[in-house]
Input
Amino acid sequence: MLGVIGLDETHESAYRALVSVGAADVPDLARRLTLGEHDTERALRRLERHGLAAQSSARPGRWVAAPPGVALGALLTQQRHELEKAELVAAMLADEYRAGVAEPAVHDLVEVVIGAAAVSQRFLQLQLGAREEVCALVTGHPVAVTGIEDGAEERAADRGVRSRVVLERSVLDQPDGITELSAALGREEQVRVVDRVPARLVIADRTLALVPLTSHTAEPAALVVHASGLLELLFGLFESVWREALPIRLGTTGVAEQQPDGPDDTDLEVLSLLLAGLTDASVAKQLDLGLRTVQRRVKRLMELTGVTTRLQLGWHAYERGWVARGGRGDGVRERPGATGVGPAV
Output
């Protein structure tokens, strides 16, 4: 826990032991730590340099713990100050980078990364650098990188980064496939499955993508694609696969594929009124529903169609025949037997 201020487990254990007794000599502390006296004294010297321990002026050879609230508080304040300075430098470098690539050359839009270690490192940087969303296509035969690297997914989830992942079905047959899938669902990641994924792909915030290259003879390699028309094409590929994939849920009996349900009559009424230009609040009042109910139904329809905006939802509603163009000019499709009075769907 104190590694952030430069202490390893041995030094932390020594400080904890010294704090528990208040003061101790080297032989006594060595017995408590089950360390040699030389190693114990070296640990105490390290604590002394950090201001966490001091030799007693009254009893030579005896060491006294510094009050944690004072000593650790000072170290943490110093650490926060160093982080703030590092953030300022990072922001300055980011501004310089953006200024330098305002009009990037074509050859700067795509990087080629060679070597398993280099590819894994870029993959990790991409995940840790994401701020809003990470989208991924995962094949049954990953190249150079795996689905989980050094807890990157957990750290991203802790920062509130959304994840949408499409798995190739063969991934579930791998030894740790179900275990990793259950962990991902437990982190509230959105996971879907298809028979075959066209390519391994990871996209962060629609600004950076990593595409591992498959090769059985050369070193593992990958393309790092920056914001460009090519990146938009890759994101379009992901969205296309996402829409066709089946959602996966974690039930009481294990992991199961969730067959897509069609919208019910109320869903269609909500959708038609929204397409007619009504606000969520107006739709709720018109249909005698709660505002949250309307918003929840819209969110479900967006998840069902695999889209992220309401504009995309309207397009998919027309494409799937949920609502019709023309007719009465309001985007509403009448059910057989409808009277034509009110927003029939």
